[in-house]
Amino acid sequence: MTKVAVFGAGSWGTAFATVLANAGNQVSVWARRESLCAAINADHENADYLPGLRLPEAITASHDPAAVVDGAEAVFLTVPSQSLRDNLTDWAGVLPNAVPLVSLMKGVELGTTKRMSEVIAELTGAGPERIAVVSGPNLAREIAEGQPAAAVVACADEGTAARLQKLCHSPAFRPYTNNDVVGCELGGACKNVIALAVGMAVGLGFGDNARASVITRGLAEIARLGTALGADEHTFSGLAGLGDLVATCSSPLSRNRTFGEKLGQGMTVAEIAGATRQVAEGVKSCASISELAHHHDVEMPIAEHVTRVVAGEMTPKDMLFSLVSRSAKSERWG
Ligand SMILES: NC(=O)c1ccc[n+]([C@@H]2O[C@H](COP(=O)([O-])OP(=O)(O)OC[C@H]3O[C@@H](n4cnc5c(N)ncnc54)[C@H](O)[C@@H]3O)[C@@H](O)[C@H]2O)c1
Ligand SMILES: O=P(O)(O)OC[C@H](O)CO
Question: Where along the chain is NADPH bound (predicted)?
Fold first, then answer.
């Protein structure tokens, strides 16, 4: 049986560990809290993040990073994007230097505007042939329940992508390979910001026209940023682009959409963040994505408006009407 390591025991780390176990692997999970490790090992449940779901016996948890990576043939990383740099600094001494390092995260680092694969490369020295990304329409709860879904495994090296594809192909989870790491990562990170805007429209009581307009124009601006950074435009009509955008913007399970909905209902960022232990990546990444767009001279009006709402400079209602009342232009991708 192949052994794999998953760093992060939140919703997605636990759900993806389930995918890997159901694909026939022995899965060792690193969790920040020893009490959670003990509960996973004893009860086969992560009651904090996926209550009521029994985890496969092939999943074990440990707080010791060296024990988690011992014998692992791939390492999957799924902590909040803004903590990855500190976490990798802590783990640098134990991460194996020959196996793939796979980002399951969907964010862009504040301050550096780096994608997660870039942070991994910087902190570990791993080359592009060893760094991969898994992204797609993958709401953790549905995946952990074994509902059918598909995703993309992206790596510059086709052999690595194919090996990882095999590792996570389970009866309910269908991974496709792709060599567009930039496009897959940006699709995943940017859709969280668009989901915040859609959530705001929902929270304000606006209907399907508003939602569809934000989703569609959101896809246009994601593709605009992605192609400016060298991504393949086709990626954005695939699972890591349109697929993830539609799932996240449609689902009440999405933390980002729910966060936006609460903003639309009048709650503040501090009130919403204080009431949950779960990460809504778009709340931080809206600023880094807007900055990235600015550096590359790319227009991303929705991301920029969301950034202003999150900073408390604009209300959700003013945001939506400001977006609609901008000067008229032609509909185009470029
Ligand atoms: N939940 C999903 O449906 C889903 C699906 C695909 C991708 N993702 C992505 O996966 C990543 C992780 O999200 P999640 O859903 O597991 O989040 P989560 O909020 O459910 O869990 C986050 C985990 O990180 C831990 N954590 C918090 N701060 C930390 C720190 N400073 N250092 C180390 N660990 C820390 C928490 O204890 C928890 O175990 C995000 O980038 C998210 O966008 C999530
Ligand atoms: O709950 P969210 O908003 O972080 O979205 C979860 C996944 O990224 C959906 O693919």
Answer: 11-12, 32-33, 49, 106, 140, 255, 279, 281
The pLDDT tens digits for 317-328 are 999 999 999 999
**Ligand 2 mutation target, pool 256, 258, 262, 284, most atoms within 8 A of CB:** 256
Whether 191 is a known active-site residue: answer yes
User: Within this chain, do residues 170 and 232 fall inside the same structural domain, yes or no?
Assistant: no
The ipTM assigned to this model is: 0.98
192 is in which domain, residue-wise?
182-324
Indicate the SS3 state at residue 119.
helix
CA distances (Å), origin 265, targets 21, 133, 229, 254: 40, 35, 35, 16
**pLDDT tens-digit readout, 279-302:** 999 999 999 999 999 999 999 999
- Looking from the CA of 152 toward its CB, the CA atoms found within 13 Å total 30
**What's the CA angle centered on 136, arms 132 and 138, to 5 degrees?**
115
Q: Catalytic one among 3, 114, 166, 191?
A: 191
160 and 292 share one domain? no
Q: Are 306 and 259 in contact (CB under 8 A)?
A: no
Name the residue among 181, 60, 177 with its Cα closest to residue 118.
Answer: 181
Query: Looking at the 3D structure of the chain, how many domains does it have?
Result: 2
Q: Are residues 208 and 253 in the same domain?
A: yes
- Tokens 């996240």 belong to 248
For the Cβ of 87 lying below 6 angstroms from any atom of ligand 1, the answer is: yes
Tokens at 191, concatenated: 């859709």
